């Protein structure tokens, strides 16, 4: 009992004192930073002044007696000083009432408590200089308990400073919030060097009574109860979650990254594909066994009627197409009866016959009227090409990669139109990689303690860097005769009151002044340096918003435009908060951006001068500078395209040269004149010109319609059209070269017959590709859509020119050759020579060696197993293909921007700003509408500010680095009446009176408030425009002009708030995955906020916006877009192939199957060769589909129309006759040109063109010339019985059976050697 009584008495003495006397009363002389209090040791005096009582009630309500007189140890003047000194604390801490109440009590009990002598000890006093009868107090000891000190600190340590995305305690601690403790906080607040404390206060934290050595008086620490931050205080609600962790609901668990799917410890994709391949091998092995036993009749089992093997009379021997054995049998097709033919086969045969007749008639017409056709074709194509006069190339990355109706694009347009475009940034990253010198700096108050700084902090280097920065700011450019400097184009947030440019640089800590860098503070004796530029730097990185350091230099930390410079923006290459270890300085010049390009031309002119200047300074002896401007990337892309023109030109010249030389059919070298006659240089060159004309016509046509092209089109479309066009050229020419004209047939009729045979095949590939590309234009990705449009039309025009102009030219060239005239010099005629037909060495190799070999019994299974193995491997790695386009690849090898990209990812410590935009339609004047967004006291945790705050606590997952700034919360703080002067004041005439104006006639704004302390709707809209024009300063740090002037739209004659934004920052984003993840998570947050505020009677939606979203949005859907585009192409290919091959379902399926395999195998190559999936590679994949059709469709069609009795023989015939044309027309043509691309300076060319083009040709050639024939030999479509029936019916009308061999020989010459599908009108024997 006695112990409890002692504790109660001790508590009473702590708070109320045992005698209730004062340590001071009233104010005496002036101190450098305020007023000294007068020494007074008598009892407390009654406070009767109404002004004093009003201030006491506002700031120190705990000391106000409810009944009777109020006794204090302070007079009204001291209370006015408290009101004046509490201005800044109120602006920063009032958003958390518990913190503000605890903070006020610290000074209220120190200054006014009637028992202050119990815990305030006057350590040092001196006579007042102007009145020797009075004594002023210049230093005190203030004793407080641990419970009070910790309670105050814990309630304030998390309070946010929304405008700076920082914690408010940073301003009052002299240290970064993470390094601030109760000890250094109180030490800073008690030090007169902070510019606000009038005399030294030594805060002594103790729980026991203390008797100082210099006095016999015992002091009892002040122990007023503190309010927890989640408790109400000062008649206000508890602090919000953003300012008080105790107010927060439990933090959601950190989402774990998804684990890759595994089966038995193996990657699921790998495991499944491995199992499927094993199943396929087993199935294929079983199929092979059954094929040899049953299909080939190894055991002599009787075949059914329509088996493809049929015995013929003995007497014919020979090896049958690579079977590797001789038989005394002849393979023949079975007899077909009309009743055996189904409807689809009849339609198919009819379509085939119809197409053949159409092309035969057309070819005959063109061959008979070549000049008219050439003139008309060239005129029409020329007229279309004339549209190039209106030709425009899009180099704007936004228009290139983002569709106008895409979400990112519409959100960017919304942001730009409401708040203005994001600044143009000119940035320098300064390093000293060759200087590892350590700058040692003696710590203040110590003789032996030093701090090491990197060589960047060498004073001479800072002077050198400042000279460079000032030189840049003074650079001049000329635009239309007008001189342009940085000050003419830069961003000035406080204009017109402050016209200094916004430059984020560490040199702004010294206001870009050489004098400030050199300034030092000496000890009182003048012997030692008390503080220098590094002490000032250390202070400023701890409190960047401070208007004056406390180290003794009395220099502001604010930049010349009065904005704080945050260290994580201006420095890089350090760990944690060790800014002295920085290895890079980052200097950023912010330049105004405009919606209209012409309005940015001044800035672009100045940026050009800056680039030229920096190129001369980037590799100085004392520093290395990586730099980038707003125009740099676009400039370098254009330069890269220009520099690669010669590479691309060399590539095309090699392909053109190959075509012109190899198109001819050369015999021996015994007769040189014969070589000049048989060459096709002129025809080949004409074919190349037709390809170029078709590209020009496509470009011109779309230019008429105002559809701009892209650099991708110029670089890719000619390659594609050349692949398609050259293949058709070789097929046409080689079909003519291998054909033997029957007696009585004219040259024109021969040309018509050849066109009738090969025309449907050309139509098949060209139409399939063209329709596929047109369908590909349905995508939303601009680069892919525009490419698809241009490519589709170019392929279509190329086909039309080939069946018109080229056939006419081929006819003229054939007449020249038959007239024994020299190629290219047709006026020279050689003596008549014997006309000989040559198969050509490539055709000979294919027919007699390659085709028989590739279709041998032991080769075919190996081919199937190898190709399917790689196919399954490619499928297994599809999910591992990276997304994105490394911006380094888009730059030339020698670009200065490459160094910037490298240093950016290495040194920078802050990510891109992200704005959460609230669209127009939200009601900001109601409590419900405000609570949906705000983050101060009374605001729910699920508000916009609250949700972003929660997201910042999960930064590794959400990519949100900091809590958001909040104009709404700062506006409420700005309206608070405290401070001397308060932020919101009015002149007598009702106009705004800034806090910087000293005018006693200015009065506090008469704000009408609701019961919750917030302004009424009328006053909300009355004072908001004033707040947004008020500049922040030392008197009022909450002015909204700098931070929010452009972030809040006032509409409808200043009666409503329109669109607004809340800004924060992303974390450091270094990889494509980081950028994509940041966009995805920000959108999730925006959607959650929208769902929350829409439940609170708001019509507005919230979306995130950052400068890079418009470029990376494509990667959220690029996989879907890839599948969609390729699937559309496949559907088009299937439909066109199905119709044009004669309603042959199996042939169409096989074409789509092999084309799909080629595309998937190319995707596998992309993974193994580090090629990411993006718009460029997607364009290439779509193009790969078109080129793959060229490799497959001709051979499949040749197989489908062949009437050989077995699939193996049909595959061999198709490969022998079409394979050589495909190899010479596409593969060899392209390889030479592709190899040249490997030597390009452009990394983009090397990766996305050389590698992918090489993959297209190699995979297309190997699949079309190796795998496809083997596949057809196994599962190719059966013979169309309608075609076979027609052939057999024609056979009945031929001569006797004894003449069959001669007929067969003639047929083989006319059909099999033609290099094209057979002409059925010449067929006699159905067993072809």
Task: Give a description of the structure.
The protein has 44 helices and 30 strands. Strands 1, 2, 5, 6 and 9 form a 5-stranded mixed beta sheet that branches. Strands 13, 18, 21, 22 and 23 form a 5-stranded antiparallel beta sheet that branches. Helix 39 runs antiparallel to helix 42 (1243-1275) and helix 40 (1175-1201) packs antiparallel against helix 41 (1207-1237). It is of the alpha+beta class and 1328 residues long. The protein folds into 4 domains: 2-247, no CATH class; 343-389 and 642-828 and 838-882 and 1116-1322, Multidrug efflux transporter AcrB transmembrane domain (Multidrug efflux transporter AcrB transmembrane fold); 423-592 and 594-629, no CATH class; 913-1106, no CATH class. Residues 1-17, 298-330 and 1295-1328 have low confidence and may be disordered. The longest helix has 37 residues, at 782-818. The chain is 49% helix and 10% strand.
């Amino acid at each position: 009992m006695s112990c409890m009584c002692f504790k109660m008495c001790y508590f009473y003495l702590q708070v109320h004192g045992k005698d209730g006397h004062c340590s001071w009363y009233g104010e005496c002389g002036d101190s450098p930073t305020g007023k000294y209090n007068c020494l007074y040791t008598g009892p407390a005096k009654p406070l009767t002044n109404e002004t004093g009582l009003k201030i006491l009630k506002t700031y120190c309500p705990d000391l106000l007696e409810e009944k009777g007189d109020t006794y204090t140890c302070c007079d009204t003047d001291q209370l006015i000083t408290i009101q004046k000194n509490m201005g800044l604390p109120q602006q920063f801490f009032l958003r958390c009432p518990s913190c503000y109440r605890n903070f006020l009590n610290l000074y209220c009990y120190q200054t006014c408590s009637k028992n202050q002598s119990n815990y305030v000890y006057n350590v040092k006093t001196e006579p007042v200089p102007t009145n020797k009868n009075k004594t002023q107090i210049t230093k005190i000891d203030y004793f407080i308990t641990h419970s009070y000190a910790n309670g105050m600190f814990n309630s304030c340590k998390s309070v946010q400073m929304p405008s700076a995305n920082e914690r408010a305690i940073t301003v009052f601690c002299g240290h970064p919030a993470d390094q601030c403790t109760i000890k250094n906080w109180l030490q800073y607040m008690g030090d007169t060097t902070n510019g606000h404390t009038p005399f030294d206060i030594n805060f002594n934290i103790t729980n026991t009574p203390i008797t100082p050595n210099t006095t016999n008086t015992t002091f009892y620490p002040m122990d007023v109860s503190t309010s927890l931050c989640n408790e109400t205080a000062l008649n206000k609600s508890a602090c919000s979650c953003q300012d008080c962790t105790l107010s927060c609901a439990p933090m959601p668990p950190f989402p774990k990254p998804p684990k890759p799917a595994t089966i038995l410890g193996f990657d699921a994709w790998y495991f499944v594909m491995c199992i499927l391949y094993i199943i396929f091998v087993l199935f294929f092995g079983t199929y092979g066994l059954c094929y040899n036993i049953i299909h080939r009749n190894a055991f002599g089992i009787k075949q059914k009627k329509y088996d493809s093997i049929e015995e013929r009379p003995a007497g014919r021997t020979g090896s049958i197409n690579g079977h590797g054995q001789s038989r005394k049998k002849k393979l023949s097709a079975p007899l077909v009866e009309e009743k055996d033919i189904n409807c689809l086969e009849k339609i198919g045969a009819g379509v085939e016959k119809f197409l053949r007749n159409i092309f035969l008639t057309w070819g005959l017409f063109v061959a008979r009227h070549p000049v008219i056709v050439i003139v008309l074709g060239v005129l029409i194509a020329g007229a279309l090409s004339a549209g190039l006069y209106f030709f425009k190339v899009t180099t704007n990355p936004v228009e290139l990669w983002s569709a106008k109706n895409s979400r990112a694009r519409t959100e960017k347009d919304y942001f730009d139109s409401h708040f203005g475009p994001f600044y143009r940034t000119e940035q320098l990253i300064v390093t000293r990689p060759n200087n590892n010198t350590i700058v040692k700096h003696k710590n203040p108050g110590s003789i032996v303690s030093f701090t090491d700084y990197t060589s960047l902090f060498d004073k001479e280097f800072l002077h050198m860097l400042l000279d460079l920065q000032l030189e840049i700011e003074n650079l001049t450019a000329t635009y239309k005769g007008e001189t342009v400097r940085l000050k003419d184009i830069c961003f000035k947030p406080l204009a017109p009151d402050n016209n200094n440019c916004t430059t984020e640089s560490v040199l702004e800590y010294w206001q870009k002044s050489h004098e400030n860098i050199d300034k030092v503070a000496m000890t009182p004796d003048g012997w030692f340096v008390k503080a220098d530029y590094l002490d000032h730097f250390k202070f400023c990185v701890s409190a960047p918003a401070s208007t004056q350091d406390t180290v003794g230099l009395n220099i502001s930390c604010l930049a010349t435009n009065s904005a704080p410079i945050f260290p994580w923006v201006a420095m890089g290459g350090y760990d944690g908060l060790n800014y002295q270890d920085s290895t890079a300085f980052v200097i950023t010049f912010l330049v105004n951006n405009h919606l209209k390009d012409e309005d940015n031309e001044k800035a672009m002119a100045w940026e050009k001068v800056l680039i030229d200047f920096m190129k001369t300074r980037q590799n100085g002896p004392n520093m290395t500078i990586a730099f980038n401007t707003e125009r740099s990337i676009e400039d370098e892309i254009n330069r890269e395209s220009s520099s690669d023109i010669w590479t691309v030109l060399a590539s095309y010249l090699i392909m053109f040269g190959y075509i012109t030389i190899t198109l001819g059919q050369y015999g021996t070298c015994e007769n040189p004149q014969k070589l000049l006659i048989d060459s096709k240089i002129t025809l080949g060159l004409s074919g190349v010109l037709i390809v170029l004309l078709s590209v020009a016509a496509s470009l011109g046509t779309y230019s008429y319609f105002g559809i701009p092209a892209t650099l991708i089109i110029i670089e890719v479309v000619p390659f594609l059209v050349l692949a398609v066009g050259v293949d058709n050229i070789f097929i046409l020419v080689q079909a003519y070269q291998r054909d033997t004209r029957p007696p009585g047939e004219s040259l024109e009729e021969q040309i018509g017959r050849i066109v009738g045979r090969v025309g449907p095949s050309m139509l098949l590939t060209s139409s399939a590709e063209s329709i596929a590309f047109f369908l590909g234009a349905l995508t939303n990705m601009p680069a892919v859509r525009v490419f698809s449009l241009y490519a589709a039309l170019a392929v279509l025009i190329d086909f039309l020119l080939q069946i018109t102009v080229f056939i006419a030219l081929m006819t003229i060239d054939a007449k020249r050759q038959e007239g024994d005239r020299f190629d290219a010099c047709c006026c020279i005629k050689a003596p008549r020579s014997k006309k000989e037909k040559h198969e050509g060495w490539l055709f000979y190799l294919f027919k007699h060696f390659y085709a028989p070999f590739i279709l041998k019994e032991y080769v075919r299974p190996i081919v199937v197993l190898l190709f399917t193995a790689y196919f399954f491997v490619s499928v297994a790695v599809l999910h591992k293909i990276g997304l994105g386009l490394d911006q380094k690849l888009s730059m030339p090898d020698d670009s200065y921007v490459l160094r910037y990209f490298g240093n950016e990812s290495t040194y920078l410590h802050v990510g891109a700003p992200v704005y959460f935009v609230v669209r127009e339609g939200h009601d900001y004047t109601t409590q419900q509408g405000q609570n949906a967004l705000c983050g101060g006291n009374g605001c729910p945790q699920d508000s916009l500010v609250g949700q972003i705050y929660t997201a910042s606590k999960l930064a590794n997952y959400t990519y949100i680095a900091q809590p958001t700034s909040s104009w709404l919360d700062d506006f409420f703080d700005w309206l608070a009446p405290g401070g001397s002067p308060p932020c919101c004041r009015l002149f007598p005439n009702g106009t705004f009176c800034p806090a910087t104006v000293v005018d006693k006639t200015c009065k506090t704004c008469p704000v009408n408030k609701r019961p919750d302390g917030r302004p009424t709707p009328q006053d909300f809209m009355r004072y908001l425009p004033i707040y947004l024009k008020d500049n922040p300063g030392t008197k009022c740090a909450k002015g909204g002009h700098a931070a929010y002037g452009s972030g809040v739209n006032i509409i409808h004659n200043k009666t409503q708030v329109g669109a607004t934004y809340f800004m924060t920052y992303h974390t450091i984003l270094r990889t494509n995955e980081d950028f994509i993840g940041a966009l995805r998570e920000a959108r999730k947050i925006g959607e959650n906020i929208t769902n929350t505020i829409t439940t609170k009677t708001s019509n507005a939606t919230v979306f995130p916006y950052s400068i890079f979203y418009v470029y990376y949005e494509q990667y959220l859907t690029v996989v879907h877009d890839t599948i969609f585009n390729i699937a559309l192409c496949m559907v088009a290919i299937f439909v066109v192939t199905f119709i044009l091959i004669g309603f042959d379902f199996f042939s169409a399926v096989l074409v789509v199957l092999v084309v799909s395999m080629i595309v998937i195998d190319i995707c596998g190559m992309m993974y193994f060769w580090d090629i990411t999936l993006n718009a460029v590679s997607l364009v290439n994949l779509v193009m790969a589909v078109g080129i793959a059709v060229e490799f497959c469709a001709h051979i499949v069609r040749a197989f489908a129309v062949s009437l050989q009795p077995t699939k193996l023989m049909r595959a061999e015939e198709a490969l022998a006759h079409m394979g050589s044309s495909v190899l010479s027309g596409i593969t060899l043509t392209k390889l030479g040109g592709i190899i040249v691309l490997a030597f390009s300076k452009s990394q983009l060319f090397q990766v996305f063109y050389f590698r992918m083009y090489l993959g297209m040709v190699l995979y297309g050639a190997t699949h079309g010339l190796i795998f496809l024939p083997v596949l057809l030999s196994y599962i190719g479509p059966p013979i169309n019985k309608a075609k076979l029936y027609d052939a057999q019916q024609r056979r009945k009308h031929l001569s006797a059976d004894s003449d069959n061999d001669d007929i067969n020989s003639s047929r083989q010459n006319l059909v099999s050697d033609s290099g094209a599908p057979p002409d059925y009108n010449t067929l006699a024997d159905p067993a072809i």
